């Protein structure tokens, strides 16, 4: 398996992969391919990686800028993260996450934030922090990973592409 940056020629395969990965998932409304498309269209897909196996895309991860009402800058939101159902539980999602986090650090990011299962994302160092929030998201599912000592405060502002706007 190889992890690499998404290329323009991957867009159709990524769309199909993300659709398959989230189909019937209990925490999905099916909007994940549209979110990625809107992030791309708005120029807000800061980093996108694919996992490729046997010349087929089997995983994808998206990173986009986020803001905080407290003014913190250079933070990135993670998601959607998708792995082909036939390739799940084989370390592909973890490899995408670790590769993306390293690239963000190399580019000077201060940290990352996501909405997800703390049982899964704690392995990467993500944790809930009382000083941050996002309307409608339970505190235990809003997870943050600072790359430095500075901790942001306030409400997290994910890109409007997550909410059907461009």
TrEMBL record:
<dbReference type="InterPro" id="IPR016181">
    <property type="entry name" value="Acyl_CoA_acyltransferase"/>
</dbReference>
<dbReference type="GO" id="GO:0016747">
    <property type="term" value="F:acyltransferase activity, transferring groups other than amino-acyl groups"/>
</dbReference>
<dbReference type="InterPro" id="IPR050276">
    <property type="entry name" value="MshD_Acetyltransferase"/>
</dbReference>
<keyword id="KW-0808">Transferase</keyword>
<feature type="domain" description="N-acetyltransferase">
    <location>
        <begin position="1"/>
        <end position="148"/>
    </location>
</feature>
<dbReference type="InterPro" id="IPR000182">
    <property type="entry name" value="GNAT_dom"/>
</dbReference>
<dbReference type="Pfam" id="PF00583">
    <property type="entry name" value="Acetyltransf_1"/>
</dbReference>
<protein>
    <submittedName>
        <fullName>N-acetyltransferase</fullName>
    </submittedName>
</protein>
